[in-house]
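Class prep. Sample record?

___
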Amino acid sequence: MLSGDQPVIELRQVKKRYAPDIVALDEVDLAISKGEFVFLTGPSGAGKSTLLRMLYKAEEPTGGSIIIDGVELSSLSKSQIPQLRRKVGVIFQDFKLLFNRTVFENVALSLEVLGLKKDQLAARVRQVVDGVGLSAKLHRKVVQLSGGEQQRVAIARAVVNRPPIILADEPTGNLDRKRTMEVLALMDELNARGASIMIATHDDSLFNNTHRRVLRLKDGKIEEL
């Protein structure tokens, strides 16, 4: 965490057990400041996806506290969870797109809860879809796109409402090197605008020689690299 900054993501003694002998997180303490860009790495099955899921309350910790933007997640009622998720854009490893809807429709879904006027919504969608290089396929059904294109739709949907926190679970796993670099450039741009970003990845090439903070999750513990 940057010295003196209030953390936007904080874990205090967080535990996650699926069985007495299956430990995903073991009393983890972690603080990420507003505007930080962090890579989370570790072997497959180490619990990277589990940690991200707990940050947007798709899973509950076995113990400890998770605080997002000053709010203790255990204090949230079920009706308050959508408000949390408006602050947290999530890029899912398996996309979670509506495959028989168009690119426009998939991305627009994230904006409909904000009550934007129709022309404002359309302009915002076009802007972010152009930013991921898919403007020519705005009205193409997602099922007709390649895996890499679908990944870019998932990224556009996660960032279109300009959330202050972005969590990405293997966001470049289905992309070639050129598109991977484009995605990282997009993340850099969002970070420069103030978003706090955490990318979970097993691809060391994404953060080798980076100035970004890198965390490794192994055997239930997080260490700084």
